[in-house]
Fold each of these.
Amino acid sequence: MRGVSPHLATDARSFGVREAWGEHLVALANKYPELVVLDGDLANSTKADIFAAAHPGRFLEMGIAEQNMLGVAAGLATTGYVPWISTFAAFVAKRALDQIRVVIAQPSLNVKMCGAYSGILTSKTGKTHQSVQDIAIFRAMPHVVTIVPADAIELQAAMTAMMEDDRPTYLRVTRDASPVIFDSGYTFEFGKALLLRQGSDVGIVSTGVQTTRALDAAALLEEQGVSASVLHAPTLKPLDTEAICELAAATGAIVTAEDHSIIGGLGSAVAETLSERIPTRMKRVGWQDTYGESGPNDSLLEKYGLTARHVSEAVLDLLAETTGARGNRR
């Protein structure tokens, strides 16, 4: 099995992901004159306002008209511009879906669709603004690359790679600050998963900010005598199927963890891969078939089963089913 990624941060700190997005758009625009930003009346929330202040002539405020915004982006892409979309994940994945399918995905136009406020932690906006089906939607759409960064460093590295790639891309962006996993030397690669922790008893495959909770779960499991690997998959399409199969072969047990529905998301993608390549016992941690609600972050993570404890308990349950006893396998 491949070695642990060398670009792991050594200091414990958190950084605002949406602020990192806005700031890096400015840096990219200084290098790429073809970059423009289209906003759906949410610039102060997505932090596209950082870009608007730096490049007002390349910022297009489209109002609360997401379908029109994506159509305009498609038109701009046909003339050589690289449009970046600023809106919430719930709106880009739902309100403008038919426009994306017909005028962006089918002709494979170079539009960068950024879904802010993704997942459950959306500052008490509730079920109307929480998007936990967006990965499934874009993963199933031909031609659309789907990226779910773990932290601000990986987000910016992915954005840099996106500007050098001409495929339509969905970039999932979270609202709140989150722990930094990677150091400044990290380089993003499409379709490459990263082994962040190596263990022998079970493999935890995670994506997005949920990877920080997967790492915490592995630490909890170590206290109980369970050795867990953590494989981070920042790209859901293309998916690093080889890394997933290697992990399954090395551990014989897989748990997936995501802030997304287990239907159609990472859990589904891993299950599809393993069922075809190397059948492996597994469990999926994530949203069950339900909608969310408004509430504080910690309360929502607890209620909907996304904490590090929930991930560790899923591992212990899987190992108990496989070996007949929890923990103490080393």
Amino acid sequence: MRPVVGSPIRGIAYMVAALFLLTVGDALTKWVGSSLPVGQVIFFRALFIFIPTMAIVFTSGGLATLKVTDRRGVGTRAVLYCCTTALITTSMILLPLADASALLFAGPLFVTALATPMLGEYVGWRRWTAVLVGFVGVIIMLRPTPDAIQVLAVVPIVAALFSAFRDITTRRISATESSNAIMFWSNVVLLAAAALTAPFGWEPMRFADLAQLALLGIIVGVAHWVMIEAYRFGEAAVVSPFKYTAIVWATLLGYFVWGTVPDAFIISGGALVIASGLYILHRETRRKAG
């Protein structure tokens, strides 16, 4: 579908809405994950994601769009998607919502750092400086002490690293594979991988649990569609910075649902990470314009 010209406000609104839905999904993950194993949560989330996914497929080209050319690339991306999903889900369950969200913002920093060795893309000294500043922010959020760092906070950092590998792989295969195929087959592999955890202690579910997981899957699937629409109505350089509204939604939901408030480490470190990400986006936009 061709981009719609001259609708930046609509694109921004779609992006803000997408990040709100994703954060609500994270909150639901945290809520349901307090009583169910991670693998079980991921399985049913992936199962119900197929509802909006197939709706998207049948309204944007049909089953023909699920054909795969680069099986190895799509398979690699699916495995990275599984690892990322498992780590992000674990992060949301173990950490306060705003803390996990802030730490996951390290993902774009990893993408920039890995762009040269993995994609052969040129990264100038300004962007390298921004990456280093961003990692200082990550270190602040990890709260290092002479004895140790916050061990649980390492989980979303590793999740951010895997998400960077996933995004770089997506960039590699997007030249030959459709978005529908990448999204669909990644979710199929995720569903199969999560099913393998069933013998290791899945819990009996109430109808309320199943309903919450169904809502979770549908919300996440719709959120990704809304994000696609955001990029259709507005240029990436305009709408992408509004991804950082996630920290606002996460803070609000964390406070009103769980009574948690980000501490000074998360606020100051997160500010550095967000500033670095915005600067990297600015430099990337100028590079492409040039």
Amino acid sequence: MLPLRLAIFDDNRDFRESLRQLFHFTPNVALVGVFPDCSLVRTAIAELKPDVILMDIDMPGMNGIDATAIVKEVSPSTQVVMLTVSEEKDRIFQALRNGATGYLLKKASPDELIESVQSVFQGGSPMSPAIARQVLQFFHLNTPPGAANRVEVPNTTSNPENTLTPREQEILEGLVDGLSYKMIAARFFISADTVKNHIQGIYKKLHVHSKGEAISYALKKGIAGQNRP
């Protein structure tokens, strides 16, 4: 089995080096690039083809949120986990909207960082507990942070979620619970490939393009998570 290819973007030298040391000695992880800013993000992603990126937000020049959009444009399969000190709602939702699959605070332990990188590679959506609470509270209270941060769904049908099959509904709930593809497969006694096929069907029916958008849609509409009747 090939190792997970990991890249890191962070302008804090000490923190960046601690991450370098941590993942240098992590089994089944190949650290393919460590960068102090995002000035070369487009070229780096095209050449290095990382599976997972740990992305800081506040960096000189281009910030990590804008860089995430470029990553997803160049390599849609690359999973981006924001790793930052920021707990601001606007930043959380814009990062998810731009394609981030996870959002961790820098105070996360080394074990949590390793587990999160492995989880997102396997199809999970890791979030620090404080961030997950904010995401759930936002949708539960239905207080959108602004039109720029909303997940926009085309009005091709008034309730696209009504077209989901019972199995797709269950798998969507698994995504909201933060489960990886393998964990969802185990929960419902189906193969990981079958899970992927169902998820593609979910994306198509809900008119979304990523796990983050699917989860946001589900929570906003109350079809999974705390809002569900």
